[in-house]
Write a structure and sequence with these properties.
By secondary structure, the chain is α+β, with helices and mostly antiparallel strands. It is built from 2 helices and 5 strands. A hairpin with a 2-residue loop joins strand 3 and strand 4.
Length: 76
């Protein structure tokens, strides 16, 4: 992720799925675990709430989501 801007929710999900393949673990998005356009993104046993996949994720939320999944943001 660049220092100047965010990524869209769908881009974050795509990057986490790619990381999951490298880690040989599961990655799943469950839409009915959230309200409206929100859902839950699982990476192995860890999870985070993914907001609207069409909107940008800010830098701070991106960092929090990475912490929730226990991954390094630089791995994405």
């Amino acid at each position: 992720m660049s220092d100047t801007g965010g990524v869209k929710g769908s881009e974050f999900e795509r990057r986490v799925r790619k990381l999951a393949r490298r880690m040989k673990t599961t990655c799943e998005f469950v839409a009915d675990k959230g309200k409206g356009s929100h859902g839950r993104l699982y990476l192995g046993q860890e999870f985070t709430t993914l907001k609207d996949r069409k909107k940008d994720i800010g830098r701070d939320l991106f960092a929090k989501m990475c912490r929730d999944l226990k991954i390094d943001a630089h791995d994405l």
